[in-house]
Give the backbone structure.
Amino acid sequence: MGAQKPVVLITGTSSGFGKLFVETFGRNGYSVFATMRGVSGKNAKSAENLRAFAIQNSLDIHVKEMEVTDEPSVNECVTKVVNQAGRLDVVINNAGFAYVDLMEAITIDQAKKIFDTNVFGVQRVMRAVLPQMHRQKSGLVMQISSGAGRVIFPSFGIYCASKFALEAITETYRYELAESGIDCLSIEPGAYKTDIFGKIDGGDDQSRLASYGSMKAVPGKLRDAVANAAADPQEVADLALEIARTPFGKRQLRYRIATGGLGVVEINKLTDQVQAQLLRAFGLAEITKLVSSSSASA
């Protein structure tokens, strides 16, 4: 990189973790490309606030339009970033959302919508940014997953499913990209107090819940429990910065950060062992030497 500032592209920066990532990386010497949908529409105020923050603090922050559910939008944005910055060192796939309700109330359209953002949106971004990282023979992709990508909560089922899928995609990319000098890893936050708590919708087909008894109260109970356990989200932004500063080959596959473990760290350790055995059984032991796949509590 030389004297040039490292370049980071972040999705879903209108609020929550995404906004904190922008501010944290901007304050720490990165050239930041903050992307969001509706820069001139629904998120115009958020875009304006980030630009004002950059000016007030003399930071290298640029706000760009990107709708992760629209492949042309993703490709156009990444092309503009690479043309402007000349390189792409870090990508943080943060865009995502949740539904909380019993599974039967979640319609097929809702299931498609959440996967289109939380899973397919990540794949669109990966396919857009990786050609530049391959040219550089370096890069880091951080996926903002969740502890709900490793354990299941009733009424969080469709969200868990999307994050389980993201975990699988992330680990596969990690194996496949290691030889190219590109890292791909997962950050698994627990409950953190962000704007998402005010934006979680339920299932569109509430008529399906008539057949349920006490289970109907579970979504509300879990919403309250998660909100009450919520910690300071700046911890997650600080972790992301620490990971970005960690050299290639020294990073973990998964970073769990939470006030309570809930067994996620133990699950990660066990699956690391199983994966290593699996790769050896198929004659792919060299891959385990290329990736540092140990998981630990952050």
